[in-house]
Design a protein that fits this description.
Elements: E1 2-5, H1 20-28, E2 32-36, H2 47-53, E3 56-58, H3 61-67, E4 70-72, H4 79-82, E5 90-93, H5 101-110, E6 113-116, H6 131-148, E7 170-174, H7 178-190, E8 193-198, H8 201-211, E9 216-219, H9 222-230, E10 234-237, H10 252-255, E11 263-266, E12 287-290, E13 293-296, H11 306-327, H12 329-334, H13 336-339, E14 342-345, E15 348-349, H14 352-358, H15 365-369
Parallel strand pairs: 1-2, 1-4, 2-3, 4-5, 5-6, 7-8, 7-10, 8-9, 10-11, 11-13
Antiparallel strand pairs: 6-14, 12-13, 14-15
Helix pairs in contact: 1-2, 6-7, 6-11
Bound molecules: 1,4-dihydronicotinamide adenine dinucleotide (NAI), pyruvic acid and magnesium ion.
Length: 372
């Protein structure tokens, strides 16, 4: 198969869909790899490094899209990219379609087959292609929150770790999954007072065991959420209902109960965000203020640390990427975890939460794939 990797074009997105190491693996499987010039410069991999790995370098994204049977990216296609996709072409990347009707329409109209990293599953009930970026974003969320909390940045002026004789700042994390636990590790490391809320009691038990008394856990009811949000200096939004738009757990009205200059870091913004007042921001303008509360809502947080995150992402995406390149649609038909990743196929929506959120009729993957 001809496998293509364009340069990412989302605001301050420096990751790349294929590292040179991944290129070598595709070449070893007998595939051709086409990479846009300078796609990997931000991870210290110039065109020469890609050529040495076996890739062909082309000057434009259009060349990549025109010449490839499968496109491997990082972020959801932008309008100029979905216009270049075509029927029969496989797109393998993050999509986050539920809160994004325009992109969804673009993909449906393109006729392409789109596999979303964030809905591929594993045997343990996890999301293996989302997890590494959730690890990165969770860890970054505390850096981002601590920075926004500084007075000169509009925040309350609290040092999360405190100092001897002065209490630490308080971090509330809503959702104790991969983002939540990684945020907690960083916040605990800084010396903050940390509380995690979740709806899963087994998950709360696990967190309690892991942190061994160093954090507080709380079952997420409206009352518990209000208490913990109102008393926080930094609130991290880290909930997920796979594929679906994030539930709006913190309303605008609730902001009035928060401390002025407190910070919200809505990591779940890529699924629409779990604060009513959130809207997606970019690394060039990451924060804005509503009712005295600083909002940080960057939808591609790991893009800021591409040297770490491009490799972590490729470690997770390579296995299924090779399956797709080796077997095409048959790979999706054969593997239920990859099938869970199928969101769009030849103009039909094949993921139930996306179909529900955007009012499309659901087409079951098994029914539409019809692989001989
Ligand atoms: N902004 C960015 O750059 C990035 C955003 N993300 C996003 O972060 C979000 C979280 O991802 P993960 O941690 O990997 O998901 P996860 O599935 O590991 O964890 C989500 C947690 O939320 C909990 N939850 C669900 N509903 C809840 C409720 N009503 N109250 C409290 N907890 C609730 C679940 O029980 C689960 O423990 C996702 O939307 C993901 O796409 C991930 C990476 C980068
Ligand atoms: C998960 C995601 O949206 C990201 O890594 O940018
Ligand atoms: Mg997005």
């Amino acid at each position: 198969m001809r496998v293509g990797c364009p340069k990412e074009i989302k605001n301050n997105e420096y990751r790349v869909g294929l590292t040179p190491g991944s290129v070598r693996e595709y070449i070893a499987h007998g595939h051709e790899v086409i990479v846009e010039t300078n796609a990997g410069v931000a991870i210290d991999a110039d065109d020469g490094v890609y050529q040495a790995a076996g890739a062909k370098i082309v000057p434009t994204a259009k060349d990549v899209f025109d010449q490839s049977d499968m496109i491997v990216k990082v972020k959801e296609p932008q309008p100029s990219e979905w216009a270049m996709l075509r029927e029969g072409q496989i797109l393998y990347t993050y999509l986050h379609l539920a809160p994004d009707p325009e992109q969804t329409k673009g993909l449906v109209e393109s006729g392409c087959t789109a596999v979303a990293y964030e809905t591929v599953t594993d045997d343990r009930g996890g999301l293996p292609l989302l997890a590494p970026m959730s690890e990165v974003a969770g860890r970054l969320s505390i850096q981002a929150g601590a920075t926004a909390l500084q007075k000169a940045n509009g925040g309350r002026g609290v040092l999360l770790g405190g100092v001897p004789g002065v209490l630490p700042g308080k971090v509330t994390i809503i959702g104790g999954g991969v983002v939540g636990i990684n945020a907690a590790k960083m916040a605990v490391g800084l010396g903050a007072d940390v509380t995690i809320l979740d709806r899963s009691i087994p998950r709360l038990r696990q967190l309690d065991d892991i942190f061994n008394g160093r954090i507080h856990t709380r079952y997420s009811t409206i009352e518990a959420l209000e208490n913990e949000v109102f008393s926080a200096d930094v609130v991290v939004g880290a909930v997920l209902i796979p594929g679906a738009a994030a539930p709006k757990l913190v309303t605008r009205e609730m902001l009035s109960g928060m401390k002025k200059g407190a910070v919200i870091v809505d990591v779940a913004i890529d699924q629409g965000g779990c604060f009513e007042t959130s809207h997606a921001t970019t690394h060039s303008e990451p924060t804005y203020e509503v009712d005295g509360i600083i909002h940080y809502c960057v939808a591609n947080m790991p893009g800021a640390v591409p040297v770490t995150s491009a490799h972590a992402l490729n470690n997770a995406t390579l296995h299924y990427g090779l399956q797709l390149a080796d077997k095409g649609l048959k790979a999706i038909a054969e593997d239920r975890h990859l099938r869970a990743g199928l969101n769009v196929h030849r103009g039909r929506i094949t993921n139930a939460p996306v179909a529900d959120a955007l009012g499309y009729e659901l087409a079951e993957p098994d029914a539409v794939l019809q692989v001989a």
